[in-house]
Structures are given as structure tokens and as C-alpha cells.
Amino acid sequence: MSEEQKTQRTLTPAEIRRAELLKQREEKLFAEGYVRHDLTTSIEKANTAGLLYPLPFAAVIVILFLVLHGMSGTIEVVKNNFILWIIGLFVFAISGVVLAVVHEGIHAVFWAIGTENHFKDIEFGFIKEKITPYCTSKAPLTKGMYILGSLMPATIIGLGFGIAGVITGNFLLMIIGVCQIFAGAGDLLVTSMLLRYKTKGKNVIIMDHPTEVGLIAYERN
Q1: How far apart are the C-alpha atoms of 57 and 182, rounded to whole Å?
Q2: pLDDT tens across 109-146, in order?
Q3: CA distances (Å), 141 to each of 115, 148, 174, 207, in order?
Q4: Which residues are 214's β-sheet partners?
Q5: Which of 32, 68, 83, 111 is deepest in the core (most CB within 10 A)?
Q6: pTM for the whole structure
Q7: Which long-range contacts does 63-69 make (Cβ < 8 Å, 24+ apart)?
């Protein structure tokens, strides 16, 4: 399947530029004997089937909260304090927007550690058709650094808020954490694809795909 057939949307100038940069890097890699392996998925699959990957982690957080604190106390607070309920909804909505930005920022920080030019190799964008922000590395990464950068947002924000909610008994913190764990569904899906990909040799270079959800593994024996 060609790039045009896979990408059923209009590419942004930034995506076109990254695709051209990848093509230039690729020519050098092919000359050195590397072979390309695409590990990609669709945004739709990442946001649907991908939800199965964070589900166990989210379930553990919710179960721990219910076992330790139950729901009765939280329900009573909501029933007896309508203003607190409204404030909670407002905070929840605002946190979703703010933490979406923080999520991509965490990707950037950890991927920048593994690139040659650090933050100069990192780029942010927004896919309007899918209402999806993203962060990408324009430079090669090792398999370990790619996985680390992929998993850190859900780990730091999702598990962080979730565990904080469980420890303090704060229902709002717990729910924000669970939502942020699910926000990492695509990251977990792509990471699982990379972990299942069996490399034949030690020389493996990982590139974030310039236009699709996923990555490209270049390998030579």
C-alpha cells in the first residue's frame, strides 16, 4: 500500500517536510544495507482497539480506590455540595486540555534525550481532521529510547494522578489519572507493536513515522 493510499487526509506542510527529510535519511540507510519495516496503525484503531492496552492499568487503579475508599463518601459529598460538583466538572474539563499538552511535552523531553540535536529534532503538530495533537522525533532513536519516550506520559501523568487519588482518597484525581492512562492508548499500542517486532540483528534504527501513527524500523544483519 502506498503512502498516498494509507494517508486519507491532506498532509500539512510540516508532514510533507518530514517525509522528505526521511526520504533523504533513508537513501543513506539503504546504501548502508538497511531494510525498512513499517510498524504503523490508524488513528481510529489507536483510539478504539488500542484502548484494550491501558484497560488493565486503569482497572487496577479503580479497584484499589473502591477497595480502600468505596464510593459512598464521594457520592455523599457530590449530593450535598452542588457547587463542589460543578467545580469538579470544570477542573476535569480544563485538566483534559492542559494535560493533553503536557502529555506531548513529556514525549518531547524523553525523545530529545535520545536524539543528536535534542529539542531541535523534536516537532509538535495537530491533525485537524482527527482533533489530535502529536509530538514526533525527526531524528533516529534507539529502540529503548523510543519505548521510554512513548510510555512516559501515561506513566507520569496517568499512573501519577491515579496513584495520588488512591492514596488521598480524592475521586477527581483518580478519574483524571484513569483518563490520562487511556490517553496513552495509542502509545501503548505502538509500543506493543515494536516489542513484538523481532529484530534479526543488533543494528536497528527507529524513526517515528512522518505521517502515520507508528514508526519505521531500519535493520541490517
Answers
A1: 9
A2: 999 999 889 999 999 888 776 677 889 999 999 989 99
A3: 6, 11, 33, 6
A4: 40
A5: 111
A6: 0.83
A7: 64/166, 65/165, 65/166, 65/169, 65/171, 65/174, 68/166, 68/169, 69/166, 69/169, 69/171
